[in-house]
Amino acid sequence: MKRLAAVDLGASSGRVMAGSVGPGQLEIEEVRRFPNGAVRAAGTLYWDVLGLHREILAGLGQAHRAGPLDGIGIDSWAVDYGLLDARGNLLGNPVHYRDARTEGVLERVVRTVPERELFDVTGLQQLPFNTLYQLVSEKDRLATASTLLLIPDLLAYWLTGQAGAEHTNASTTQLYDVRARTWATGLAGRVGVPARLLPPLREPGERIGTLLPDLAAELALPELPVVAVGSHDTASAVVAVPAEPGANFAYISSGTWSLVGLELDAPELGDAALAANFTNEGGVDGTIRFLRNVMGLWVLTETLRTWSARDERAELAEVLAEAAAAPPLGAVVDVDAPAFLPPGDMPARIAAACRETGQRPPATRGELVRCIVDSLALAYRRTVRQAARLAGRTVDVVHIVGGGAHNTLLCQLTADACEVPVLAGPVEAAALGNVLVQARTLGAGLPDLAAMRELIRRTQPLRRYTPSGGDWAAAEARLHPAGVSR
Ligand code: ADP
Ligand code: LRH
């Protein structure tokens, strides 16, 4: 048996999980969970990256005390980074991708490098917060920097002293050549990002290094190997999608964001994929994650936050029960509208979106939450269908992994909206994918993704939802009368 620590940092919470892997065996337990999110200071939204580092160290110590560890892997949300100076010191605090500093940057950049060309090289969807746009927004500060490290690479650097960039997360920067699997240094130069900032790439499964001796001593840990996993949380989550061999499956990695798409062997770079704003992110073992970002449970979390800021106490389980009892498909909104991206008053934005599309805004808490969950399921339908059409595939089953797999209303409505069965679970897919890739590196067998998924199917609780109807096409027509829009 190997016992492995998976550090998995989502945009809402971080956790240190301990996974045990042996022949035909896979168990995972939560060792430590801590909140994560934006911290606003002097008008800028930051991450508390040092707080995350402190929590990781505490979690690793705890995990090892509960049973000796054999390795450590780190995955996190994508696109964000820290800059280091020539001595390896952090220059400034990493900024949150929802910060307003990227407003208008994408529009400026595409005047220099047209969208078609950007997509041709990087295969990436246009999101205003792609690393490329974040870097351009702080171009004047780049002269003092010598290395850019994406969040999981930065945290691994603090554990091992080794700097590098793991491929799956590098592929989310829009500075990565999706076909050559190298940094797109020519593109970086054209937008004014110095190529010297981009560190050597490393494959998921590579050993990054070992815990620094002083850290190991402080934590009473051995000098454990730190292994590069699919360091983009979505890449690790897709590893743990319990797809049957040969199945025509789509996946939804449903957490703060919902990442909805297919696993392909090669990027899909046609005009239709560009027009539909699909992305080709790098997956573990050279796969391509052909997907689209759907705004996700963020809209619900932010709604709860808005209510609690007004002292209207609202527990998730309670409002979901009210939503389940509310009339179906009363009002729907396009959750992917840019208005829902920044933090703020989601109930007010939802009401405004309903009025704009000639619908009566939700009148009660239950109706509002029902509107969010219906709208998410509708976006899942739209995106799964688009992905299948663009890739020339059929989809017979949709896997939901991540925290959204706990949401029984959302899972049922997804089966209804997509008109195919939904298989929900595992909830901790990213941590499981992280553990499995480490386990392979450290000699636990598991030669390929199929073997990893087989182990997930055999060991993890999954729940099946069967389609039960609803007029989803009519709901879609309320939002996009002329067909699917971008
Ligand atoms: P991230 O990795 O982005 O931080 P997670 O995958 O942990 O996100 O998912 C968090 C979301 O999962 C929460 O915002 C919540 O909506 C949903 N969730 C978690 N637990 C439950 C639950 N017991 N019932 C319903 N939804 C849940
Ligand atoms: C999900 C995620 C997603 C990215 C976003 C920034 O946690 O990594 O895949 O697009 O965060």
UniProtKB/TrEMBL annotation:
UniProt xrefs under Pfam families: FGGY_C (PF02782), FGGY_N (PF00370)
InterPro entries named in the record: ATPase_NBD, FGGY_C, FGGY_N, Rhamnulokinase
Chain segments annotated as transmembrane: none
BP GO terms, sorted: glycerol metabolic process; rhamnose catabolic process
Keywords on record: ATP-binding, Disulfide bond, Kinase, Nucleotide-binding, Rhamnose metabolism, Transferase
Domain called Carbohydrate kinase FGGY C-terminal: residue spans: 250-441
One GO cellular component, as annotated: cytosol
One Gene Ontology MF term: ATP binding
Gene3D superfamilies noted in UniProt: 3.30.420.40
Keyword Transcription regulation in annotation: no
All residue ranges annotated as the Carbohydrate kinase FGGY N-terminal domain in the record: 69-239
UniProt entry tagged with the keyword Transmembrane helix: no
Domain of life: Bacteria
Family assignment from sequence similarity: Belongs to the FGGY kinase family.
Protein name: Rhamnulokinase
